[in-house]
């Protein structure tokens, strides 16, 4: 009970999915008719992912350890169990901030989206941030499939180029964050 299930926020995924919270605090993501090829046929296309956020329970003592593991079911086979992750609660690193709003301005709701082309790409991909307000700045991050941060950059334009450079062939996750809004896209690098 170290995580607040009421705070769960499903996010981006490699394929359309259904989301459910099962008894015993189990999160279930179902990808209907995903039809992934096996890894010996097409390693790059044989992967899928899901991204979600969840808050920790309030007032957890320093040193509390949150463990997580996934069971991945393919068809009617026994589950494939992932390694168990461990996150230890540390010191608070953000000071409290008081924000006083003296004027309310009505704005229209904006949602971010990413368009990447070509995808798969071999050397350069063009990335367009859809819904990014003009003259707004943000961050772009590139992760490998295991979630390791590979590149981070500042953006101030709605369109930019992503160079393959030192990247190896495979599947990557591109994350763009602008003014507290976040969007993600799956990228596939195929060397020719």
Report on this structure.
The chain folds into 2 domains: 3-88, no CATH class; 113-189, Immunoglobulin-like (Sandwich), CATH 2.60.40.3080. The protein is globular. Helices cover 0% and strands 46% of the residues. 7% of the residues are buried. The protein is built from no helices and 15 strands. It starts with a strand and ends with a strand. With 192 residues, the chain is an all-beta fold.
Radius of gyration: 19 Å
Classification by helices and strands: mainly beta
Output the number of helix runs: 0
* Strand adjacency order, main sheet: 12-11-14-15
Order of helices and strands: EEEEEEEEEEEEEEE
Q: In whole angstroms, how far apart are the ends?
A: 49 Å
Shape: globular
- Share of residues in helices: under 10%
Please indicate the count of domains.
2
Low-confidence stretches: none
Q: Could you describe the largest sheet, including whether it forms a barrel?
A: 4 strands, antiparallel
Average pLDDT rating:
82
Strand content: over 45%
Query: How many β-strand stretches?
Result: 15
Topology:
Layout: E1 3-13, E2 18-22, E3 26-30, E4 50-56, E5 65-68, E6 71-72, E7 80-81, E8 85-88, E9 113-117, E10 124-130, E11 138-144, E12 149-155, E13 159-163, E14 170-178, E15 181-189
Antiparallel strand pairs: 1-4, 2-3, 5-8, 6-7, 9-10, 10-13, 11-12, 11-14, 14-15
């Amino acid at each position: 009970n170290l995580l607040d299930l009421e705070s769960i926020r499903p996010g981006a995924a490699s394929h359309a999915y259904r989301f459910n919270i099962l008894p015993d605090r189990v999160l279930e993501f179902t990808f209907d008719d995903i039809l992934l090829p096996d890894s010996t046929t097409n390693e790059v296309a044989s992967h899928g992912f899901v991204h979600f956020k969840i808050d920790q329970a309030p007032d957890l003592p320093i040193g509390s350890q949150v463990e997580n593991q996934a069971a991945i079911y393919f068809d009617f086979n026994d589950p494939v169990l992932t390694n168990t992750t461990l996150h230890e609660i540390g010191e608070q690193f953000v000071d409290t901030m008081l924000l006083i709003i003296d004027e309310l301005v009505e704005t229209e709701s904006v949602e971010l989206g990413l368009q990447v082309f070509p995808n798969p790409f071999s050397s350069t991909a063009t990335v367009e941030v859809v819904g990014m307000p003009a003259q707004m700045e943000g961050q772009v991050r590139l992760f490998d499939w295991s979630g390791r941060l590979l590149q981070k950059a500042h953006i101030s334009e709605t369109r930019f180029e992503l160079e393959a450079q030192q990247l190896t062939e495979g599947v990557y996750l591109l994350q763009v964050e602008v003014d507290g809004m976040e969007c993600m896209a799956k990228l596939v690098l195929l060397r020719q």
